[in-house]
Amino acid sequence: MSKVQLTDLVLRDAHQSLFATRMVTADMLPACEKLDKVGYFALEAWGGATFDSCIRFLNEDPWERLKTLKKALPHTKIMMLLRGQNLLGYRHYADDVVAKFVETAARDGVDVFRIFDAVNDPRNFKAATEAAKKTGKHIQAAISYAVTPFHTIEKYAELAKQYAAIGADSIAIKDMSGLLKPYVAYDLVKAIKKVTDLPIEIHSHATTGMSVASLTKAAEAGAEILDTVISSLAMGTSHSPTETMVEIFKGTEYDTGLDTGLLLEIAAYFRDVRRNYKKFESSFLGADTRILVSQVPGGMLSNMESQLKEQGASDKIDEVLKEIAVVQKDAGYPPLVTPTSQIVGTQAVFNVLFGRYNRLSGEFQDLLAGKYGACPAPKNHEVVKKALEALKLDKEITHRPADDIPPEYSKLEEEAKKLLGGSRVSVEDVLTLAMFPKVAPGFFKKRAEGPVVFKPEPELPAAASTQAGTGQAARYSVNVNGAAYDVVVAPAGTVAVAAAAPAGAAAPPAGAAAAAPAGGATVNAPVAGTVLKHTVAEGSQVNSGDTVVIIESMKMELEIKAAGPGKVHFLVSPGAAVTAGQPLAELG
Asked: Fewer CB within 10 Å, N- or C-terminus of the chain?
């Protein structure tokens, strides 16, 4: 065995970071035969945001993806990224659901469970680690890396010692934002090696331009495994190129023994595949050193760009990046990794759009109240007070949050049977519903249609930009909320939609055209999103400040309140997509 092994992230974190987790399984399979021959430590192929993206955007069953990839990669371990007690969702689950999820994932194809907790609370590893131990699979406990006054090498080493004690087979340093500096990486690996002899794997995004040097120094310090990505999906918000690291170590004591020629063939394949996803590409393709301050993870950057475009606030990105640092400090310096990255990032957007802490997402309230575990540092007392008042709690939670969650798998199973209309339901479908109860029902209805298909968009001819001025119609491809449309602009400026998107593409927002009826005050959507539920019945009398609608925006829940008294008449139904400023209800 070579002294340094590599885990390639091409099937998961690469496309999550570069083009919003949109790669479909059909684009992965042709490369699997060659990927299986390389000799990686593992291929990271599941978990993270892939589960969410599969059912939300791709109309693809994530469990079938896992099973299919396992068959296509018989000689290579499949790694998944698991968020501890959060699993793959945005809340903590009961221990019985965690156990069932891990057991099912192991059966369907996961060989290495990389388990992490967003706030590095060892208590949140307990259920997932115990369940993984029973499967006999490899358990890798990951330390979420951040650079704050409360994150020191000594504290990280102590965390590694605690993770070893709870049963980890290896330790990962999860540097999701590219903040790990080369010489710090060297010292950190050395410090961990003093407290445990477990293998160490380094995961460091290329966002700030330091990752190649950091991986090199980590290997010199004794790290046995490094995360890389095949070159055609590397760098930018992704990771260091696999071929680059192979060549750096070639002929040294750290030689990986991997075949660069084979890797170049794989790179050529994914170079072509990447063209299919051009419309989802992040604009952060170089080294973005603003991240040294904002600490935003690579995958979050591409998603945040998309979310700000949806809100009509693309010009606010720099302001939001600065605000993230403020929100992170006020929340007790949680490392910015899913779900805390999304929680802190969305709150930063709300602060920029509505004023600092004038609107708190439900998840941000939960983070401040301790429902996600213990954050590393003291929080802003005034913001915590506001969150506790909204949640009607007297004080922050200090025990293991999952202790408050009774067993829930049986209840979820009954809900799945009712939803799917049968006396029997697969464990996988129950768990899909558990992870994303608002998204799964729609996915189950459309699942039989099969996954969406992405193809390269035709290049616009150079002459197209001048066609309108020469008396000819100009044709453009326009993307609206994930759906592609061919638009023709006639010489006189008339616009016509020539062709709708192919089957499987997202439709324009339902309810987007709804207008407020004449008369009466309205309750408007402050941001674009999806209506989750009405919190009062149609025709109910409400007072100023009462919550009348809850919408989901940027994957977070936001309460929409009445600005005055009146009887509620709803203008949009649950499940409808709404735009910023759109009337949701009228108060008569």
From this structure: N
